[in-house]
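GTP-binding protein RAB5
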Amino acid sequence: MSKQYQFKLVLLGESAVGKSSLVLRFVKDQFDDYRESTIGAAFLTQTVTLDDQSTVKFEIWDTAGQERYKSLAPMYYRNANCAVVVYDITQTASLEKARTWIRELQRQADPSIVIALCGNKTDLEARRQVSQEEAKKYAEEEGLMWAETSAKSGEGVQEIFTAIAKKLPLTAPPSARPGAASRGPGARTGVDLSKQQGAQGQQEPCNC
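Structure:
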């Protein structure tokens, strides 16, 4: 039987960089031009199948980018296995904000967290302000994964989440107890679901 793993993933970044659109494209392969800003955080799940047929289930916390919700962020990235920090390639300031989030993760998140820096909105290439060279150089210096995406066209979206799934250590951490599926934003994940009888299907996506 192919192995199944479960990891907690958090999305961070300034408001309006396209975090929710990125998740919607990944989870439902949809795009909404008039998507409202996230309030607090939204929770969704999606599964990626790797080359060896093992599967990685992401429990995704899509956090709000507005400044008034910033104090809530540690509740969502605490004990996260991976984080996608999103910036808008047409807004230089959004990359600076992404750098701030990355510094915070490096200081306060789990030391083993996998961080991906993601430049969104490549469909707006004509309005680009952040060069690939600048972002890639920064990612290399900080030891981050890096990619560019377009939530609107779907370009690069599946690829970045699959790359993260491949980067994660497919072993349950010592703190993960059998059956310890996430029931809240601070719960620890990274559980080998294939060792749990009937573990699949216990949680339904909350499209809040």
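Residues 4-195 form a domain with the Rossmann fold fold (CATH 3.40.50.300).
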